[in-house]
Design brief:
Strand content: 25-35%
Structural class: alpha+beta
Bound molecules: uridine-diphosphate-2(N-acetylglucosaminyl) butyric acid
Mean pLDDT: 94
Order of helices and strands: EEHEEEEEHHEEEEEHHEEHEEHEEEHE
Shape: globular
Length: about 350
């Protein structure tokens, strides 16, 4: 039985620490509760918003005049499948708790994704990625709630339509009551099953990791050492949202054609990019820094000194302040380079 709470502050439910109150807030721990929460919203003719760990989201200062449904479905279970191990993670499990548990069991596959904030459910929605790995590479299947049909469905990796920081779980299906940012959201992730391996080899492809293990031969590197390295490298590069509220990378790295890349490279020879599915993924952080935005503040919203892709809340920034700063950056980068930055963070 769900318990809708009234007028709950959303800022404490997001790593940006921004946002007014939700008219109703429902924590969901089981699949049945998920159905109940959606029925509550329908019955009251209110829009609803599905929230995970709140690490990639900014709610408006005016709050949300509907039902925020927070997925708190627990559970980590490892299941042996021949040489492989399937790790089942409830949608509400902390992503890093799943990584830590897998590393403890010596199961390879997601160690490079250590210390990413957010939940297991959001890992599939976002297709999180870091240090040469995208979570889609390990996802076996996903159990989701189909809002329109009011049934639970199982999707194979292919059916999830994963791509850079996106998936079918971000796509809409034209639900009339859905708010901006989740317009017509159709599928809500309940559980994700990952295929992990007992005999992995460290993935050292990413420059920072290769540098860290420069004098080591890969077969001597343990999974625990990999996790420790990732955590250290992340801490050096990215501000901790616990101490400086932020939502990780604010923008995606733009993916442009090889022709366009050559043109931009002519104008900006230092530009950083690498081949990605026949195109070139370029570093948004480099572009933003090159345009002089690193460390720039607008009121309490600011681009961090540590990383040009991260916009932080330095005190009492409003959603409006953050959005204003991000739009100034997008406009300026476009005017100077012709490259359109796209937000990774979802603004409601
Ligand atoms: N760089 C700059 N200025 C900066 C920071 C970085 O010029 O202030 C340059 C660096 O020199 C480097 C390049 O940008 O060559 C890439 O930097 P980094 O390794 O930090 O990675 P990123 O492309 O900026 C992506 C992900 C991160 C992920 C890292 C590590 C996106 C949008 N971001 O960042 O993911 O942790 O790679 O793999 O794809 C997130 O999505 O929230 C996130 C933090």
């Amino acid at each position: 039985m769900v318990l809708p709470l009234e007028n709950v502050s959303l800022s404490s439910h997001t790593t940006m620490r921004i946002g007014g109150s939700a008219r109703y807030f429902i924590s969901v721990h089981t699949e049945d509760e998920m159905c109940e929460a959606v029925r509550f919203a329908h019955k009251n003719k209110l829009p609803f918003f599905v929230l995970g760990g709140g690490s990639n989201i900014i709610f408006p200062d005016s709050g949300f005049l509907g039902v925020v449904i927070k997925i708190e479905i627990p559970g980590i279970v490892f299941e042996e499948h021949g040489r492989e191990i399937f790790a089942h993670g409830g949608g509400g499990v902390s992503w890093d708790a799943l990584v830590a548990e897998s590393v403890k069991h010596n199961l390879w596959g997601i160690e490079n994704l250590s210390a990413i904030p957010g939940t297991v459910g959001a890992s599939a929605v976002q297709n999180i990625g870091a240090y040469g790995v995208e979570v889609k590479d390990t996802i076996e299947w996903v159990r989701a709630y189909d809002i329109q049909r009011d049934i639970f469905v199982t999707l194979s990796r292919d059916e999830c339509a994963f791509a850079y920081r996106t998936s079918i779980f971000k796509k809409s299906a034209g639900l009339p009551t859905a708010p901006a940012g989740q317009a017509g959201k159709k599928l809500v992730v309940m559980k994700v099953v990952f295929c992990l391996s007992k005999n992995g080899i460290p993935n050292l492809r990413y420059g920072d990791i290769a540098k860290y293990f420069l004098d080591r031969s890969p077969e001597t590197i343990s999974i625990l050492e990999m996790r420790e390295a990732i955590i250290k490298i992340r801490a050096q590069k990215l501000p901790n949202p616990q101490t400086l509220p932020n939502a990780g990378s604010f923008f995606k790295n733009p993916i442009i054609s090889k022709n366009q890349y050559l043109k931009v490279q002519n104008a900006f020879p230092g530009i950083k990019g690498h081949e990605y599915l026949g195109k070139v993924k370029i570093s948004a952080a480099w572009l933003i820094e090159m345009c002089g935005w690193k460390g720039v503040r607008y009121k309490d919203a600011g681009i961090t000194q540590k990383h040009a892709l991260v916009i932080a809340n330095y005190g009492n920034a409003s959603a409006h302040d953050i959005v204003h700063l991000s739009e100034c950056i997008t406009r300026d980068v476009f005017e100077r380079t012709g490259i359109a930055l796209e937000r990774e963070v979802i603004i409601i």
